[in-house]
């Protein structure tokens, strides 16, 4: 019996090089590659992943820049250790924190999970396109890697879009994990603003860090596939443990 080859490339609307990076990461993880292990040659690897050699080279170049692999001219490509204890992801991806941790091979666990009813104030009502005073589910989460808290996620969603008891009993993961599993409405994309901030007393208590600690803040408005905004989230990350990157291409001149 011929063994069926695993399909690493998941075709979707993202740029092909982005899909190739994800496929190569999964290949490395599935093979249990360790730092110093040599990857197959370009021809074999491109066939294994189902991508062209030029696309493979671009993906490998990106991963080399992230410190995942290193290439030696005339010798081959080798797996290298990522920054110690750090998770990395591209901001062009819409991953939950736990999915991001799983892809990086870093065990992350949910520490705090607080779900309560709130009311839309003058800040939230226009963002979520609901009347002032509308009922919202307020979800607060912290996640840990080992003994360290790595992120605090503070989110609001119209209460009519979720089952509050079901949400309170959701066993693991984030609000995004819950919404993806629930599937209606399904999160499709976000509009995200990035800020460098210092932890105030409230954030310091949630993250178990000193007040004044440097944090990365992602303010995100989630949209459904119909273009309806339905989640407002403020996500705070410790930058020594979580690193994000952005792939930018040169804009074509008119």
Description:
With 254 residues, this protein is α+β, with helices and mostly antiparallel strands. The protein has two domains: 64 residues, Winged helix-like DNA-binding domain superfamily/Winged helix DNA-binding domain (Arc Repressor Mutant, subunit A), CATH 1.10.10.10; 159 residues, 3-Layer(aba) Sandwich (Chorismate lyase), CATH 3.40.1410. It is 27% helix and 32% strand. It contains eight helices and ten strands. A six-stranded antiparallel beta sheet has the order 4-5-6-9-8-7. A hairpin with a 3-residue loop joins β1 and β2. α1 crosses α3. The mean pLDDT is 82.
Summarize, please:
By secondary structure, this protein is α+β, with helices and mostly antiparallel strands. The chain has helices at residues 16-30, 42-49, 53-65, 97-104, 124-128, 164-168, 175-182, 201-207; strands at residues 69-72, 76-79, 87-90, 108-119, 135-145, 148-158, 187-198, 214-224, 229-237, 242-245. It has a six-stranded antiparallel beta sheet with strand order 4-5-6-9-8-7. The chain has a two-stranded antiparallel ribbon with strand order 1-2.
Lay out the secondary structure:
Layout: H1 16-30, H2 42-49, H3 53-65, E1 69-72, E2 76-79, E3 87-90, H4 97-104, E4 108-119, H5 124-128, E5 135-145, E6 148-158, H6 164-168, H7 175-182, E7 187-198, H8 201-207, E8 214-224, E9 229-237, E10 242-245
Parallel strand pairs: 3-10
Antiparallel strand pairs: 1-2, 4-5, 5-6, 6-9, 7-8, 8-9
Helix pairs in contact: 1-3
């Amino acid at each position: 019996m011929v063994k069926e080859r695993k399909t690493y490339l998941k075709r979707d609307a993202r740029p092909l090089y982005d899909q190739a990076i994800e496929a190569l990461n999964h290949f490395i993880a599935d093979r249990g590659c360790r730092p110093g292990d040599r990857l197959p040659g370009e021809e074999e690897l491109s066939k294994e992943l189902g991508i062209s050699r030029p696309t493979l080279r671009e993906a490998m170049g990106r991963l080399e820049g992230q410190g995942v692999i290193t290439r030696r001219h005339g010798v081959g490509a080798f797996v290298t250790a990522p920054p110690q204890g750090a998770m990395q992801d591209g901001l062009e991806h819409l991953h939950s924190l736990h999915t991001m941790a799983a892809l990086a091979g870093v065990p992350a666990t949910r520490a705090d999970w607080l779900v309560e009813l709130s009311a839309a104030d003058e800040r939230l009502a226009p963002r979520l396109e609901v009347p002032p005073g509308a009922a919202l589910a307020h979800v607060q989460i912290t996640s840990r890697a080992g003994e360290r808290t790595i992120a605090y996620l503070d989110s609001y969603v119209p209460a009519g879009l979720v089952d509050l008891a079901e949400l309170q009993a959701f066993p693991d993961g984030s609000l995004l994990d819950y919404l993806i599993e629930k599937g209606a409405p399904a999160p499709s994309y976000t509009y995200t603003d990035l800020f460098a901030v210092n932890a105030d007393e409230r954030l310091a208590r949630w993250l178990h860090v000193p007040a004044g600690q440097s944090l990365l803040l992602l303010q995100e408005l989630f949209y459904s596939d119909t273009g309806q905004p339905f989640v407002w989230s403020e996500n705070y990350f410790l930058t020594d443990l979580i690193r994000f990157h952005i792939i930018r291409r040169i804009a074509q001149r008119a």
